Each structure stands twice: as structure tokens, then as C-alpha cells.
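Fold this sequence, please.
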Amino acid sequence: MTVIVNKMVEDQVLDRAYAALADPTRRWLLETLRQGDARITDLAAPLPMTFAGVSRHIGVLESAGLVRREVRGREHWLSVQPDGLTVAQQWINEQTAFWSTRADALSARLRRKRRGR
């Protein structure tokens, strides 16, 4: 039972990460934060939406564990949480390994078939 629950939790984390990355505004926010911590007001300024809209996008990124908010006085600062992509990266690595193995097996079979002609 523990394995099933752990898998369900891992799937939820993965779903939140990919849902967060699916939106171009949220990807832009993450790319911008790679340059360093930033105030939410500075991140919102160049975007063609309301501050509330940007705040909702940031909430999605926070829920996915991709950004961290720190309140400094009256200002809210954001930083990237690189560990937030760990589960997504592990999933991609597993898929890559699986499909690489399948592609290698297909390639070997086709080479054997050509030699057998």
C-alpha cells in the first residue's frame, strides 16, 4: 500500500510541475528568475496582465515547488527552487532510458535482418 501511495504523491508532484511549465508566462517567470531573486512587482511590470494575474501564475509555480517566496518588509521576493524539477527530470530520464533501449533493440534487429538477406 505504501508503494501505491508514494507513487500517487510522486505523480501529483510531477503533474503540478508539468502543469506549471505548460504556460508560457510561467516559463518566462522561471527564465527571468534564473538571473537572480526578484520582487514580484518587478516581474509583473513588463507583463501584459494585471498584478493579480501574475500573482496567480506565481501561486501555481509555488504550488509546484518551482519558486520560493520570501517576505522582506512589505516586499515579496521570489527565487527559483531548482529541486522542484527533480521529479520531472527523473521521469524524463526514465523515459529516455526506456526508449533508447527500445531504439537500440530495433536497430540491432534491422541490422540482423539486412545481413540475413
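The chain has one domain: 2-115. The first strand starts at residue 38 and ends at 39.
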